[in-house]
Amino acid sequence: MLAAPELVKGVEFMTKPAGTVAATVPRGYLVPAELDYVAEKLRTHNVKVKVLAKPIKAAGEEFVILRIGQGRGGGYNMIKLEGGFAKSPLKEFPAGTFRVDLAQPMANVAFYCLKPRMALSAGAYWTRTLSRSGQTSGAWRIRSISILK
């Protein structure tokens, strides 16, 4: 049998989560082909990532970066993105774009990896291509899709 859990005095609700930011989970993400290292990182975590065989049009949102900061966390150099999501009109994405559908078992992992403001998100990976604020993070949150002919 397992031993009784250790009682830590002076600590209340050690595992009680305290939400600080609300986030909306999108239908999925579209990631440009040049950010193949983001797709590979997702696949490392068993997230299903598909490559578009045909161009598509999608309405969605993209994260507009207002400020790029740096710091340390957990013994690692970290990049912190400040900004917000802006709605964008229907946009065309070429064949070769990566598509991450969140109707999959690893949806939560994909969401947390692609959420730009998460401490350990792929933002740390895609920002190596960014140099100034006002740029977008690269990942596109999907609201709706139409296949182009």
Give the gist of this structure.
The chain is mainly β and 149 residues long. The chain has helices spanning 36-44, 107-114, 123-126; strands at residues 28-31, 50-51, 56-73, 76-93, 98-101, 136-147. It contains 3 helices and 6 strands; from the N terminus they run βαββββααβ.
Describe this structure in words.
- This protein is mostly beta strands and 149 residues long.
- It has one domain.
- It is built from 3 helices and 6 strands, in the order E-H-E-E-E-E-H-H-E.
- It has a 6-stranded antiparallel beta sheet with strand order 2-5-1-6-3-4.
- Strand 3 and strand 4 form a beta hairpin.
- The chain is extended, with a radius of gyration of 18 Å.
- It starts with 27 loop residues before the first strand and ends with a strand.
- The C terminus is likely disordered.
